[in-house]
Design a protein that fits this description.
It is built from 12 helices and no strands. The protein has about 280 residues and is mostly helical.
């Protein structure tokens, strides 16, 4: 899991680097097209046409679109905000998932478990500061991305009971690649990418596919409720890489907000683990 999180932080770093020079659609296309090619090469020889079989094709397409929407929104946020702060705001997703699980999956959550959710959103306000000078459109993008990602996770839970893991991995890559290939001609500029940038674009798929592969291995070795609190280590990587690569380091209020989100998220993760045991 720690290796997967390091790769995801590197993926975000490369995405932010490319987004500073190119349209978001080009970056998202590179992310999903490379991921699609790698996923197809790995799983098609093993599963054949069974890779494409899904019990709920409509939901898989919607799920793929929500993940592509997440990537597009987050990459857009990278154009306006530091890496660590964007990553921290994405981590409101577990709070949103808790809300959606109650609303759409019928899961029950005791009253006391709403407290860390509310506190976590307080951490978001410290980073966003909607009444202060630090607020910008990047906050809107990243919170939109977090909402898309929460829907993606809810659909993943719903589809996990009917589709194999390889199919679950394949469809977001397929849908993301197809959607961005449709949009790409509108934003593509011939000769816009030099050799170094082509290599960076290719690395997006490698980093994404490798990160998801390591996460699958982690989930095979330990329950998701055990691994949940460790996911916040990605914030450490994001803060370090943001400082080393872009020279960005969160200010005091943002750091406090990040710590509040992490603390609240860990409480939500452990309460979910306790609730399932009970």
């Amino acid at each position: 899991m720690m290796g997967a999180l390091a790769l995801f932080a590197l993926l975000d770093t490369v995405s932010k680097t490319l987004a500073s020079r190119h349209h978001v659609a080009v970056v998202v296309w590179g992310r999903y097209f490379a991921h699609f090619v790698i996923t197809l090469a790995v799983f098609l020889p093993r599963y054949g046409t069974a890779l494409f079989k899904t019990a709920r094709p409509g939901l898989q397409i919607v799920r793929g679109l929500t993940l592509a929407g997440t990537t597009g929104a987050v990459v857009s946020a990278f154009q306006h905000m530091p890496l660590a702060e964007v990553t921290a705001l994405v981590f409101v997703t577990p709070f949103l998932v808790s809300i959606l699980a109650v609303s759409f999956l019928g899961e029950k959550m005791p009253l006391w478990r709403w407290i860390p959710v509310a506190v976590g959103f307080g951490g978001v306000l410290l980073i966003a500061r909607p009444s202060g000078d630090a607020f910008n459109v990047g906050v809107v993008f990243v919170l939109l991305g977090a909402c898309c990602y929460a829907v993606y996770q809810i659909l993943t839970r719903k589809l996990a009971a009917v589709d194999r893991s390889a199919t679950q991995l394949f469809y977001p890559a397929l849908v993301g690649a197809a959607a961005t290939c449709v949009l790409l001609p509108r934003f593509w500029v011939a000769g816009a990418l030099d050799l170094r940038e082509w290599l960076l674009v290719g690395s997006l798929g490698v980093l994404g596919a490798s990160g998801h592969f390591l996460m699958i291995l982690a989930l095979r070795a330990a329950p998701a409720t055990t691994l949940g609190p460790f996911t916040y280590a990605q914030l450490v990587w994001a803060t370090l890489l943001g400082w080393l690569v872009f020279g960005d380091f969160p200010d005091r209020l943002s750091l406090i907000g990040i710590l509040i989100i992490v603390g609240s998220g860990v409480v939500v993760a452990y309460s979910e683990r306790y609730g399932r045991k009970a």
